[in-house]
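Researcher: Next sequence.
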Amino acid sequence: MSLFGKIFGGKKQEVAPSTQDAIQKLRETEEMLIKKQDFLEKKIKDEVATAVKHGTKNKRLALHALGRKKQFEKQLNHIDGVLQTIEFQREALENASTNAEVLQVMGGASKALKAAHNNMDIDQVHDLMEDIAEQQEVANEIAEAISNPVGFDRAIDDEELLRELEQLEQVFKTHFTVLELDKQLLDVQPTPVVLPDAPSTDLPASSKAKPAKTTDHDKDLEDLEMWANA
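Model: Next structure:
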């Protein structure tokens, strides 16, 4: 700074506030203006009530009340415009802050991605993929070789098959003959057995039948019958 500036005081360079500080200041201003807006709306209602109260009885007071109401309405309209401007600035700052944070995150991600690719070579990646494909082909060939049966592709002798067929036919005939013999044996009717006739006369009784023992229940029935016939 020059000597002239030191004597008369030079203009100091102002430090720009941070985005968050500016947003906070705008919000505080909004709250203050909204409170003043509520106050003016209440004053307008009071002046209207005063004008209605005096009416034609005292036109001078009624006109003064309406004049004050007009002044309050002008202030209210001014505050509405200021609030719209502040809201626009606050939203712009919030969007700028969000964009700055997003760009910062994207920049960090770009640096991390670049650092991750520093140890990679595209030629090495291609070579690695070729090695993987080659080893996969080898594995497929090994699997195919293991799955093929060993020693089962030789030609089969037709005469041997014919001899086996004849043996099966002979076994079938023998089994069929045994089944026919069993069936014939089962169909043979058994010889009837003649039993002697039963005797026509009654057999002598071995002993006389004993009279049934009279129980107390029978005695009670006899007493009841005698009483009924009396």
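Model: Residues 206-212 have pLDDT under 50 and may be disordered. Residues 120-154 form one domain.
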